[in-house]
């Protein structure tokens, strides 16, 4: 058996964050020629499946969240998670210090409660000396809103809820 593993960002995905028709055809040709195709990425399994599904490509395996979840033919072979208490303590510390974060869980991607505030501050800082600041800001907001919608980023539950619901936290 021959396997081809490929990254997504900066490799398989185009500048629009999608798998191009040419790349989709190349993956299909590999599979047709007997190769097993594995997607290896920092993205989560759901995101990989959404992107490959949109391109009508079915990978044989997925190594996601930088190796935290390994799936072969839709069966999870490996899951590496943080201890729930450690994850809750870390996320609580980040919240208390006012840091922005993303946490990847079995329920999807969660972001810190102040995420929108950080995002707006970053836009203001980036555009403050630009001639068309409002136009640029609006374009950034539109693009970011599309990505947030595509990724289905949710607000992070409280540390207590995180512990009581036994979330699996893969990475933060």
Explain this structure.
- The structure is a single chain.
- This protein is an alpha/beta fold and 172 residues long.
- It is built from 7 helices and 9 strands; from the N terminus they run βααβαβββαββααβαβ.
- The protein has helices at 8-12, 21-32, 45-54, 84-97, 115-127, 133-151, 159-164; strands at 2-6, 35-40, 61-64, 69-72, 75-79, 102-105, 108-111, 154-155, 169-171.
- It has a 5-stranded mixed beta sheet.
- Strand 2, helix 3 and strand 3 (61-64) form a beta-alpha-beta unit.
- It is flat and about 50 Å long.
- The protein starts with a strand and ends with a strand.
SSE string, helices as H and strands as E: EHHEHEEEHEEHHEHE
Dominant shape: flat
How helix-rich are the residues, as a percent range? 40-55%
Termini separation: 35 Å
- What's the mean pLDDT score? 86
DSSP strand count: 9
Strand order of the largest sheet: 1-2-3-4-5
Write down the Rg: 19 Å
The parts where pLDDT drops under 50 for at least 5 residues are: none
Largest sheet: 5 strands, mixed
Q: Tally the helices: what do you get?
A: 7
Give the helix/strand class: alpha/beta
Strand-residue fraction?
15-25%
């Amino acid at each position: 058996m021959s396997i081809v593993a490929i990254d997504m960002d900066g490799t398989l995905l185009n500048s629009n964050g999608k798998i191009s028709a040419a790349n989709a055809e190349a993956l299909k040709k590999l599979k047709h020629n007997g190769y097993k195709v594995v997607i290896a990425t920092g993205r989560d399994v759901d995101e990989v499946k959404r992107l490959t599904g949109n391109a009508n490509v079915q990978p044989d395996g997925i190594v996601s969240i930088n190796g935290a979840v390994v799936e072969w033919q839709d069966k999870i072979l490996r899951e590496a998670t943080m201890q729930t208490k450690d994850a809750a303590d870390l996320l609580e510390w980040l919240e208390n210090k006012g840091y922005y974060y993303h946490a990847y869980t079995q329920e999807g991607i969660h972001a810190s409660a102040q995420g929108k505030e950080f995002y707006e501050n970053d836009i203001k800082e980036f555009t403050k000396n630009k001639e068309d600041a409002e136009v640029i800001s609006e374009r950034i907001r539109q693009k970011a809103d599309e990505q947030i919608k595509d990724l289905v980023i949710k607000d992070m539950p409280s540390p207590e809820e995180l512990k009581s619901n036994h979330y699996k936290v893969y990475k933060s």
